[in-house]
Amino acid sequence: MRTLILSDIHANLTALKSVLADAGPFDQVWCLGDIVGYGPDPNECVTLIQSLSPLKCVKGNHDAAILGEIDLRVFNYEARDSLLWLRNKLEPQHLQWLNTLEERLVFDDVTMVHGSPRNPIWEYLMDTVSAGENMSAFSTQLCFVGHTHVPGVFQFNDDKIGSTDYYAMTDGSEFIPENKVIINPGSVGQPRDNDPRSSYVVFDNQTNRFEFHRVKYNIEQVQKRILAAGLPRRHASRLENGW
Ligand code: ZN
Questions:
Q1: pLDDT tens track of the chain, all 243 residues?
Q2: Residue 156 CA, ligand 1 centroid: distance in Å
Q3: How far does residue 122's CA lie from ligand 1's centre (Å)?
Q4: What spacing in Å lies between the alpha carbon of 85 and ligand 1's midpoint?
Q5: Domain range for 137
Q6: Is the overall model pTM greater than 0.90, yes or no?
Q7: Cα-to-centroid distance, 219 and ligand 1 (Å)
Q8: What separation in Å is there between the alpha carbon of 161 and the centre of ligand 1?
Q9: Beta bridge partners of 166
Q10: What b/e sequence results for 2-38 when a residue is b if at least 16 CB atoms lie within 10 Å of its CB, and e otherwise?
Q11: How many domains does the chain have?
Q12: Which of 132, 155, 164, 197 sits at a 20 to 30 Å CA gap from 177?
């Protein structure tokens, strides 16, 4: 079975379509949250994600914010501006659907959260210290996170007590877990590892192999829609820098 693993689409429909076209056939989809926020196509992205089946999806911090679960003042002012814009733009049925998403899903040998297993909505797993501290916060072998917009894998290392190794993942990288792992597929709609291409992962459970992929999309088209929508200019400019 081939599982397509996505995160941080951030209302970028062009990027999402490129990923779906590039990924080839898949049997199911796991989505790690932040479908909306920053980008110009929130309704279209929710509709497209909803249409994928079977789908498992958790709630991100931007999704939680638009549901009124997080005070907008904790966001930086540009993220806040786009959330205020989104309030008027997101259709009620899409808001309702976001409201059905859980913060954490656990099934088979898989845990799914947006941020981290100990703080599903808000913690950024940027380093091996915080990842190591989180290894005891989930009981499955595999844990999937998004939120940092940087693709990579943290793997628990039995040899050194309490140690966790980090593997940065680029286009074409593959990973076969040997221990407990926290896997981040990177971001579809707003990558932040200086590679502007959309990031995603395909998991083949026959071989237990995770393939990391990058795919180009028409950034200029999305930038035009961001500016036409009156969203902050930096949301447009950062896309071409992959930051
Ligand atoms: Zn995000």
A1: 999 999 999 999 999 999 999 999 999 999 999 999 999 999 999 999 999 999 999 999 999 999 999 888 888 888 888 899 999 999 999 999 999 999 999 999 999 999 999 999 999 999 999 999 999 999 999 999 999 999 999 999 987 666 899 999 999 999 999 999 999 999 999 999 999 999 999 999 999 999 999 999 999 999 999 999 999 999 999 999 999
A2: 25
A3: 10
A4: 17
A5: 2-240
A6: yes
A7: 18
A8: 32
A9: 154
A10: ebbbbbbbbbbbbbbbbbbebbeebeebbbbbbbbbb
A11: 1
A12: 197
Q: Ligand 1 centre from 164 Cα, in Å?
A: 24
Report how far ligand 1's centroid is from the alpha carbon of 115 (Å).
Answer: 9
Residue 178 is which amino acid?
Answer: E
Distance 61 CA to ligand 1 centre (A): 7
> What residues does the ion ligand 1 have nearby, CB within 5 Å?
8, 34
Distance CA 29, CA 91 (A): 23
| Rounded Cα distance, 55 and 49, in Å | 8
Measure 11 CA to ligand 1 centroid, in angstroms.
10
CB 120 within 8 A of CB 126: no
Name beta bridge partners: 214.
Answer: 199
- Give the pLDDT of residue 51: 97
Give the Å distance between the CA of 107 and the centre of ligand 1: 23
- Domain containing residue 200: CATH number: 3.60.21.10
In this prediction, residue 158 carries a pLDDT of: 81
